[in-house]
Amino acid sequence: MHFRPSLPSDLPRLLPLIAPDAAGGPTAETYTTRLRAGEYRPGRTWIAEDDASDGTLLALAVWWGDPDAAPEADLPEALDGLYVHESVRSAADRTALAAGLLTAAHTAFAEAGASNPPEYHLSLPGDWHERPDTVEAVAWRQEAARRAGLPVSLERLRYEWTPYTALPAPAGRLRFTPEPDDEVFVDLFRRVLKDTLDTDSRKEAESVGAEAQARGDVDFYRDTMPGDRSWWRVARTPDGEAIGFGLPSRNHASPVVGYLGVLPEHRGHAYVDDILTEITRILVAETDPEKVRADTDLTNTPMAAAFERVGYRNDARRLVLSAH
To answer: Which of 28, 46, 158, 246 could hold 260 in an S-S bridge, CB 3.0 to 4.6 Å?
Structure first.
Protein backbone atom coordinates (compact mmCIF):
# COMPACT_ATOMS: atom_id res chain seq x y z
CA MET A 1 0.00 0.00 0.00
CA HIS A 2 1.33 3.42 -0.96
CA PHE A 3 0.34 6.48 1.09
CA ARG A 4 0.95 9.91 -0.40
CA PRO A 5 -0.44 13.42 -0.81
CA SER A 6 -2.66 13.73 -3.84
CA LEU A 7 -1.79 15.48 -7.08
CA PRO A 8 -4.13 17.66 -9.16
CA SER A 9 -4.29 14.82 -11.69
CA ASP A 10 -5.75 12.51 -9.01
CA LEU A 11 -8.97 14.53 -8.72
CA PRO A 12 -11.12 12.42 -11.11
CA ARG A 13 -10.09 9.27 -9.23
CA LEU A 14 -10.53 10.56 -5.69
CA LEU A 15 -13.92 12.26 -6.05
CA PRO A 16 -15.85 8.95 -6.26
CA LEU A 17 -14.42 8.02 -2.84
CA ILE A 18 -16.15 11.04 -1.26
CA ALA A 19 -19.50 9.31 -0.91
CA PRO A 20 -22.29 10.24 1.53
CA ASP A 21 -21.63 8.64 4.90
CA ALA A 22 -23.32 8.48 8.29
CA ALA A 23 -20.22 10.00 9.92
CA GLY A 24 -20.52 13.16 7.86
CA GLY A 25 -17.57 14.80 6.17
CA PRO A 26 -17.50 16.94 3.04
CA THR A 27 -19.44 15.88 -0.02
CA ALA A 28 -17.77 15.75 -3.42
CA GLU A 29 -19.40 19.09 -4.26
CA THR A 30 -18.15 20.65 -1.03
CA TYR A 31 -14.69 19.27 -1.67
CA THR A 32 -14.42 20.83 -5.13
CA THR A 33 -15.81 24.15 -3.85
CA ARG A 34 -13.28 24.33 -1.03
CA LEU A 35 -10.54 23.15 -3.35
CA ARG A 36 -11.21 26.16 -5.58
CA ALA A 37 -11.24 28.42 -2.51
CA GLY A 38 -7.88 27.12 -1.31
CA GLU A 39 -9.24 25.65 1.93
CA TYR A 40 -8.54 22.18 0.59
CA ARG A 41 -5.42 21.61 -1.46
CA PRO A 42 -3.92 18.56 -3.18
CA GLY A 43 -1.10 18.54 -0.62
CA ARG A 44 -3.66 18.57 2.21
CA THR A 45 -5.47 15.57 0.73
CA TRP A 46 -3.82 12.19 1.22
CA ILE A 47 -4.62 8.95 -0.58
CA ALA A 48 -3.95 5.25 -0.12
CA GLU A 49 -3.08 3.63 -3.43
CA ASP A 50 -3.13 -0.12 -3.96
CA ASP A 51 0.26 -1.14 -5.35
CA ALA A 52 -0.96 -4.64 -6.16
CA SER A 53 -3.68 -3.53 -8.58
CA ASP A 54 -4.06 -0.88 -11.25
CA GLY A 55 -3.51 1.90 -8.74
CA THR A 56 -7.02 1.87 -7.31
CA LEU A 57 -7.49 4.46 -4.57
CA LEU A 58 -8.62 2.66 -1.42
CA ALA A 59 -8.67 5.46 1.15
CA LEU A 60 -8.73 9.22 1.34
CA ALA A 61 -8.13 11.79 4.10
CA VAL A 62 -9.08 15.44 3.64
CA TRP A 63 -7.57 18.18 5.80
CA TRP A 64 -8.69 21.79 5.99
CA GLY A 65 -6.21 24.66 6.16
CA ASP A 66 -5.91 28.41 5.91
CA PRO A 67 -6.76 29.40 2.32
CA ASP A 68 -4.29 32.29 2.59
CA ALA A 69 -1.37 30.17 3.81
CA ALA A 70 1.78 30.46 1.72
CA PRO A 71 3.05 27.19 0.21
CA GLU A 72 6.07 27.19 2.52
CA ALA A 73 3.76 27.40 5.56
CA ASP A 74 1.08 25.05 4.30
CA LEU A 75 0.34 22.94 7.37
CA PRO A 76 -3.26 21.69 7.67
CA GLU A 77 -5.30 22.69 10.70
CA ALA A 78 -8.03 20.04 10.97
CA LEU A 79 -9.04 16.72 9.44
CA ASP A 80 -12.47 17.13 7.85
CA GLY A 81 -13.09 13.75 6.24
CA LEU A 82 -11.83 10.16 6.20
CA TYR A 83 -13.08 7.71 3.57
CA VAL A 84 -12.39 4.09 2.68
CA HIS A 85 -13.39 2.36 -0.56
CA GLU A 86 -16.53 0.23 -0.34
CA SER A 87 -14.52 -2.84 -1.38
CA VAL A 88 -12.81 -2.77 2.03
CA ARG A 89 -15.73 -4.27 3.89
CA SER A 90 -14.71 -5.30 7.39
CA ALA A 91 -14.38 -2.73 10.16
CA ALA A 92 -10.99 -4.17 11.10
CA ASP A 93 -9.62 -3.72 7.59
CA ARG A 94 -11.09 -0.23 7.29
CA THR A 95 -9.54 0.74 10.61
CA ALA A 96 -6.10 -0.61 9.71
CA LEU A 97 -6.07 1.06 6.30
CA ALA A 98 -7.26 4.42 7.64
CA ALA A 99 -4.78 4.29 10.53
CA GLY A 100 -1.93 3.65 8.12
CA LEU A 101 -2.96 6.59 5.95
CA LEU A 102 -3.29 8.97 8.90
CA THR A 103 0.00 7.84 10.41
CA ALA A 104 1.86 8.46 7.15
CA ALA A 105 0.34 11.92 6.81
CA HIS A 106 0.97 12.83 10.47
CA THR A 107 4.62 11.82 10.07
CA ALA A 108 4.95 14.09 7.04
CA PHE A 109 3.26 16.98 8.86
CA ALA A 110 5.65 16.57 11.81
CA GLU A 111 8.65 16.60 9.47
CA ALA A 112 7.28 19.85 8.01
CA GLY A 113 7.12 21.46 11.44
CA ALA A 114 3.77 20.51 13.01
CA SER A 115 4.08 20.15 16.79
CA ASN A 116 0.98 17.91 16.99
CA PRO A 117 -1.16 16.10 14.44
CA PRO A 118 -4.20 18.15 13.42
CA GLU A 119 -7.44 17.48 15.26
CA TYR A 120 -10.13 15.41 13.57
CA HIS A 121 -13.56 17.08 13.62
CA LEU A 122 -16.64 14.95 12.93
CA SER A 123 -19.92 16.82 12.43
CA LEU A 124 -22.70 14.53 13.63
CA PRO A 125 -26.46 14.57 14.22
CA GLY A 126 -27.58 15.56 17.68
CA ASP A 127 -28.93 12.05 18.30
CA TRP A 128 -26.02 10.20 16.75
CA HIS A 129 -25.57 7.88 19.75
CA GLU A 130 -29.03 6.44 19.00
CA ARG A 131 -28.26 5.81 15.31
CA PRO A 132 -26.53 2.41 14.83
CA ASP A 133 -25.23 3.29 11.36
CA THR A 134 -23.62 6.49 12.65
CA VAL A 135 -22.17 4.75 15.72
CA GLU A 136 -20.60 2.14 13.43
CA ALA A 137 -19.26 4.74 10.99
CA VAL A 138 -17.73 6.77 13.82
CA ALA A 139 -16.25 3.75 15.63
CA TRP A 140 -13.74 2.64 13.01
CA ARG A 141 -12.72 6.22 12.28
CA GLN A 142 -12.20 6.96 15.97
CA GLU A 143 -10.09 3.83 16.42
CA ALA A 144 -8.01 4.67 13.33
CA ALA A 145 -7.44 8.17 14.67
CA ARG A 146 -6.45 6.76 18.07
CA ARG A 147 -3.85 4.48 16.49
CA ALA A 148 -2.50 7.44 14.51
CA GLY A 149 -1.97 9.64 17.57
CA LEU A 150 -5.38 11.20 18.32
CA PRO A 151 -6.54 9.34 21.47
CA VAL A 152 -8.45 12.16 23.21
CA SER A 153 -12.12 12.78 22.41
CA LEU A 154 -14.27 15.80 23.22
CA GLU A 155 -17.93 16.08 22.29
CA ARG A 156 -19.36 19.53 21.69
CA LEU A 157 -22.88 20.82 21.13
CA ARG A 158 -23.35 22.91 18.00
CA TYR A 159 -25.86 25.74 18.18
CA GLU A 160 -27.37 27.95 15.52
CA TRP A 161 -29.32 31.21 15.70
CA THR A 162 -31.26 32.58 12.73
CA PRO A 163 -33.00 35.93 12.22
CA TYR A 164 -36.34 34.13 12.41
CA THR A 165 -35.78 34.01 16.18
CA ALA A 166 -36.21 37.28 18.03
CA LEU A 167 -33.41 38.25 20.39
CA PRO A 168 -34.33 39.03 24.00
CA ALA A 169 -34.56 42.74 24.73
CA PRO A 170 -31.42 44.11 26.43
CA ALA A 171 -31.76 43.71 30.18
CA GLY A 172 -30.14 47.10 30.75
CA ARG A 173 -27.95 45.80 33.56
CA LEU A 174 -24.70 46.13 31.63
CA ARG A 175 -23.14 48.51 29.18
CA PHE A 176 -20.88 47.21 26.45
CA THR A 177 -17.83 49.20 25.43
CA PRO A 178 -15.18 48.72 22.74
CA GLU A 179 -11.66 48.37 24.11
CA PRO A 180 -8.69 48.95 21.78
CA ASP A 181 -6.08 47.82 24.32
CA ASP A 182 -5.30 44.12 23.83
CA GLU A 183 -3.82 43.97 27.33
CA VAL A 184 -7.27 44.53 28.82
CA PHE A 185 -8.52 41.43 27.02
CA VAL A 186 -5.43 39.45 28.02
CA ASP A 187 -6.26 40.23 31.65
CA LEU A 188 -9.92 39.29 31.19
CA PHE A 189 -9.08 36.02 29.42
CA ARG A 190 -6.66 35.15 32.23
CA ARG A 191 -9.18 35.90 34.97
CA VAL A 192 -12.07 33.91 33.47
CA LEU A 193 -9.87 30.79 33.35
CA LYS A 194 -10.53 30.25 37.06
CA ASP A 195 -12.97 27.32 37.39
CA THR A 196 -13.72 27.45 33.66
CA LEU A 197 -15.87 24.66 32.24
CA ASP A 198 -14.29 25.03 28.78
CA THR A 199 -12.16 21.91 28.31
CA ASP A 200 -9.75 23.30 25.72
CA SER A 201 -9.05 26.48 27.70
CA ARG A 202 -8.50 24.53 30.91
CA LYS A 203 -6.15 21.99 29.31
CA GLU A 204 -4.12 24.65 27.52
CA ALA A 205 -3.77 26.72 30.69
CA GLU A 206 -2.59 23.65 32.58
CA SER A 207 -0.01 23.06 29.85
CA VAL A 208 1.42 26.54 29.26
CA GLY A 209 0.11 28.62 32.17
CA ALA A 210 -2.79 31.06 32.42
CA GLU A 211 -0.86 34.08 31.16
CA ALA A 212 0.41 32.35 28.02
CA GLN A 213 -3.01 30.83 27.40
CA ALA A 214 -4.69 34.24 27.66
CA ARG A 215 -2.21 35.84 25.26
CA GLY A 216 -2.60 32.95 22.87
CA ASP A 217 -6.37 33.37 22.85
CA VAL A 218 -6.14 37.10 22.13
CA ASP A 219 -3.64 36.45 19.33
CA PHE A 220 -5.84 33.73 17.85
CA TYR A 221 -9.05 35.76 17.74
CA ARG A 222 -7.28 38.90 16.52
CA ASP A 223 -4.94 37.38 13.93
CA THR A 224 -6.40 34.03 12.83
CA MET A 225 -10.17 34.40 12.93
CA PRO A 226 -11.47 36.66 10.14
CA GLY A 227 -13.86 38.53 12.45
CA ASP A 228 -13.25 42.25 13.02
CA ARG A 229 -11.29 43.29 16.13
CA SER A 230 -13.55 46.34 16.51
CA TRP A 231 -16.48 44.07 17.39
CA TRP A 232 -14.96 43.01 20.73
CA ARG A 233 -16.71 44.32 23.83
CA VAL A 234 -16.07 44.59 27.56
CA ALA A 235 -19.22 44.16 29.67
CA ARG A 236 -19.43 46.64 32.55
CA THR A 237 -21.85 47.65 35.26
CA PRO A 238 -23.28 51.18 35.01
CA ASP A 239 -20.54 52.39 37.38
CA GLY A 240 -17.81 50.93 35.16
CA GLU A 241 -16.85 47.70 36.90
CA ALA A 242 -15.85 44.94 34.45
CA ILE A 243 -18.19 41.94 34.57
CA GLY A 244 -16.91 39.98 31.58
CA PHE A 245 -16.40 40.25 27.84
CA GLY A 246 -17.68 39.04 24.49
CA LEU A 247 -15.92 38.42 21.18
CA PRO A 248 -18.22 38.31 18.16
CA SER A 249 -16.27 36.78 15.29
CA ARG A 250 -16.58 34.70 12.16
CA ASN A 251 -14.90 31.77 10.48
CA HIS A 252 -14.62 31.07 6.77
CA ALA A 253 -18.22 29.79 6.68
CA SER A 254 -20.34 32.08 8.85
CA PRO A 255 -20.47 34.53 11.76
CA VAL A 256 -19.78 32.82 15.09
CA VAL A 257 -19.88 33.41 18.81
CA GLY A 258 -16.12 33.54 19.19
CA TYR A 259 -15.69 33.66 22.97
CA LEU A 260 -17.44 35.02 26.00
CA GLY A 261 -16.63 34.96 29.68
CA VAL A 262 -17.96 36.16 33.02
CA LEU A 263 -15.46 36.95 35.77
CA PRO A 264 -15.62 34.42 38.63
CA GLU A 265 -16.78 36.93 41.23
CA HIS A 266 -19.78 37.85 39.06
CA ARG A 267 -21.00 34.40 38.08
CA GLY A 268 -24.43 33.18 39.10
CA HIS A 269 -26.40 36.24 37.95
CA ALA A 270 -27.13 35.15 34.34
CA TYR A 271 -24.84 37.86 32.95
CA VAL A 272 -23.89 35.30 30.31
CA ASP A 273 -27.32 35.88 28.72
CA ASP A 274 -26.69 39.62 28.43
CA ILE A 275 -23.25 39.09 26.87
CA LEU A 276 -24.46 36.42 24.44
CA THR A 277 -27.35 38.65 23.37
CA GLU A 278 -24.96 41.55 22.74
CA ILE A 279 -22.59 39.34 20.72
CA THR A 280 -25.49 38.22 18.55
CA ARG A 281 -26.81 41.77 18.18
CA ILE A 282 -23.39 42.97 16.94
CA LEU A 283 -23.15 40.12 14.44
CA VAL A 284 -26.63 40.92 13.13
CA ALA A 285 -25.73 44.60 12.71
CA GLU A 286 -22.32 43.99 11.17
CA THR A 287 -22.85 40.92 8.98
CA ASP A 288 -26.61 40.61 8.25
CA PRO A 289 -26.24 36.85 8.75
CA GLU A 290 -28.37 33.99 7.52
CA LYS A 291 -27.25 32.24 10.71
CA VAL A 292 -24.87 32.61 13.63
CA ARG A 293 -23.11 29.49 14.87
CA ALA A 294 -21.68 28.56 18.23
CA ASP A 295 -20.24 25.54 20.05
CA THR A 296 -19.91 24.55 23.68
CA ASP A 297 -18.72 21.41 25.42
CA LEU A 298 -21.36 18.76 26.09
CA THR A 299 -20.44 19.00 29.78
CA ASN A 300 -20.77 22.82 29.95
CA THR A 301 -24.42 22.81 30.97
CA PRO A 302 -24.58 26.48 32.10
CA MET A 303 -23.42 27.69 28.68
CA ALA A 304 -25.78 25.29 26.90
CA ALA A 305 -28.68 26.62 28.96
CA ALA A 306 -27.74 30.21 28.08
CA PHE A 307 -27.80 29.41 24.36
CA GLU A 308 -31.29 27.96 24.75
CA ARG A 309 -32.55 31.00 26.68
CA VAL A 310 -31.25 33.45 24.08
CA GLY A 311 -32.88 31.54 21.22
CA TYR A 312 -30.10 29.38 19.81
CA ARG A 313 -31.08 25.91 18.61
CA ASN A 314 -28.94 22.82 19.14
CA ASP A 315 -28.86 21.32 15.65
CA ALA A 316 -25.83 19.01 15.74
CA ARG A 317 -22.83 17.75 17.66
CA ARG A 318 -19.14 17.90 16.92
CA LEU A 319 -16.77 15.14 18.00
CA VAL A 320 -13.20 16.39 18.27
CA LEU A 321 -10.34 13.87 18.33
CA SER A 322 -6.97 15.25 19.37
CA ALA A 323 -3.49 14.35 20.56
CA HIS A 324 -3.89 15.87 24.05
So the answer is: 246
